[in-house]
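Worked example

This section walks through a single chain of length 255. The input is the sequence exactly as stored; nothing has been trimmed or padded.
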Amino acid sequence: MLPRRLVPLAAIGALLVLIPLIALASRVDWASFWPLVTSEASLASLLLSLRTATIAAALCLLLGVPLGVALHRARFRGASFARAVVLAPLVLPPVVGGLALLYAFGRRGLLGGTLEAFGVEIAFTTAAVVMAQTFVALPFMVLAVESALSSRTGRHEAIAATLGARPWTVFRRVTLPALGPALATGTVLAFARAVGEFGATLTFAGSLQGVTRTAPLEIYLAREADPGAAVALGVVLVVVAIVVVGATFRRAAAG
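Given that input, the structure is written out below as tokens.
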């Protein structure tokens, strides 16, 4: 049971989140809501966000699982520092992440010149949007994998190894199936983070309609010229976020 002294603070915390969302919803012109969110600019940015976030979530799943396993099993000196670096995008200002990506993969970046020699340009393309979203969302998958592995004893893996299974077979047949719920949670959270990504995307990918202008960028640009469209699109993203997070925690509670 919640101690009574915590109730006021819990209520203030809830209101701190709830009141801005109610304020946002109160500014929507509901009579024009559907035309606003289905305008050419809104629809293009929303579909681009969903498409790139889906690819970013898939990349987080592909790269985050082995990275999380490697960090969990790392026993070398400096492993804690390596973990801190991998998880840094969680707290890094997004614009700093965008600058880091630009200085790494931009035309004059660390690897940009080499990539350009092979005819590959990443900055200010749709691929840059995916990279920025993956950069900020990857730690969610790594944390989900590490947390799930920390709750396991490793007994089943040890039994499989004593029966002669090779490490890859143990991982594929024993560890990976056990991580299923954590992978689902990590993928959904990575998708939600990717959909809402703004600063790194703007810095690394720019804002070209139909190419790099995602829904958050469209909201930012429309807030002065067409505040009605900005508010309507913002409500759509709020609904997407609530549905995604709600489904994730409902699944976690059921599991």
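What to look for: The mean pLDDT is 90.
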